[in-house]
From TrEMBL:
Residues 22-258 form the GSCFA domain. SUPFAM superfamilies: SGNH hydrolase (SSF52266). This is GSCFA family protein. The lineage of its organism: Bacteria, Pseudomonadati, Bacteroidota, Flavobacteriia, Flavobacteriales. It holds the Pfam family GSCFA. InterPro entries: GSCFA.
Amino acid sequence: MKFRTEVEINESITKIGIDDCIFSIGSCFATEMHEKFSEGQIQSLNNPFGTIFNPYSVCQAIRQIYDAKEYQENDLILANESYISLDHHSSFDSRYLHRSLEKINKNIEDANQFLQNTGFVIITFGTSFIYEFLPKKKLVANCHKIPQKFFEKRLLSNQELTDSIHKTIEILTDICRDNVQILFTVSPVRHIKDGMIENQLSKSKLITAIHESISGKDNCNYLPVYEILMDDLRDYRFYKDDLIHPNSQAVQYIWEKFGSAYFSDNAKIFINENNKIAAALNHKPGDEKNPKYQDFIEKINLRIKEQQKKVKHKIF
């Protein structure tokens, strides 16, 4: 008897190798994937604008990276005693103008360089809702806890969604490596503050827009992350205490399905060994001078050196 509906990720013809660069952008799940890549010592860069949720803001971020835009003082506003970019997550906010600008511009420069060597891009959309900052008539990525009276909230239209996704694909295809693989996902995190019905509408619009936009494009695919959590792992034991965000068990399950479909055989072996080494390094002995522990560390260092020989980038 079967007691659950298992959702599979279609096996990719183009595989991720041990020297590939992976760029991820979007909502929290993009960060979860980035952390898994980093743990496996695969080159990965995530969310240079911080966590952003809707396709329009993701497109704007990709455009700014492509243009290597240098933000100036007039691109920021002063609110809540901090200098703020409405294109960025609140982690860029600072009481000091130069600090905000330095972080923003450094991230754009690094992302521009990284994307030029990137073979795989993972984009995770969280919502179709967007806010307009009324004083500037500007669509924003984050409200930064500015009073709601300064914003107007609405759903992006299907045309706005598909235009944003098409433009994102166009820019990435131009700046990234030849035959870059662009993988779209919808975050399984429910935005219940929008309302349960409104959240479902928002997610549905995202899924529809993605499928319309990538139809017929050989280098674009949809990863059913949302469907895996909603249908395959349909149980609250796979969520954190807030009952909204997937827990580590759920993330690991999705990661393993993704790896099975997208990693080359060498990458699977490489990542597995690196994860074992990382787990061993986290072991804290009672006495670091113990000869047995010193022998243990020496063996671990030999394993690290063997792994380092396999790749061109720096690991551990």
